[in-house]
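Saturday, quiet lab. Running sequence design on the structure tokens for the scaffold JK sent over.
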């Protein structure tokens, strides 16, 4: 498995991971394209931002996106993380999270948050296992993301 920064030619593959049906995929193409091209700006998010992908024999099987922010008195936000179902439970998400954490650390951003539905127990457990704490019902926070690197 290889982890690298995403490029525009991979947007369709990323959107396919997030949106399974054609309408959802088109929506994700617009969102991810705007994010990577810096035309879609999440709330309170100055530049820069990053998307990392993991590939298996040239196929994108997972990705993570994050950006700097001032929201919730934090310094960064994990925007998206997703891994194809057949590649889950192989440590890919944890590796992607470590790459994003290193990116944040390089930018002196240590307090990082993520939005997570309260009923998404798999994601909630993943974030908590990797050091995040509950901020409120929908948000978790790493008070110091450098602890996971």
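Result came back. Writing it out in full:
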């Amino acid at each position: 498995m290889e982890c690298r920064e995403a490029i525009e030619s991979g947007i369709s593959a990323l959107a396919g991971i997030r949106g399974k049906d054609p309408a959802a995929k088109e929506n994700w193409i617009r969102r991810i394209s705007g994010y990577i091209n810096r035309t879609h700006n999440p709330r309170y998010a100055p530049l820069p931002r990053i998307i990392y992908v993991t590939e298996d024999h040239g196929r994108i099987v997972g990705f993570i996106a994050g950006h700097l922010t001032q929201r919730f008195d934090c310094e960064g936000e994990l925007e998206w993380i997703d891994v194809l179902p057949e590649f889950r439970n192989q440590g890919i998400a944890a590796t992607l999270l470590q790459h994003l954490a290193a990116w944040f650390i390089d930018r002196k951003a240590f307090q990082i948050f993520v939005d997570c539905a309260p009923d998404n127990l798999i994601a909630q457990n993943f974030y908590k296992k990797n050091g995040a704490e509950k901020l409120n019902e929908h948000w978790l926070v790493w008070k110091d993301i450098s602890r996971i690197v």
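Notes for JK: The domain at 2-108 is CATH 3.40.630.30 (Aminopeptidase). The mean pLDDT is 94. Ask whether to fix the surface positions before the next round.
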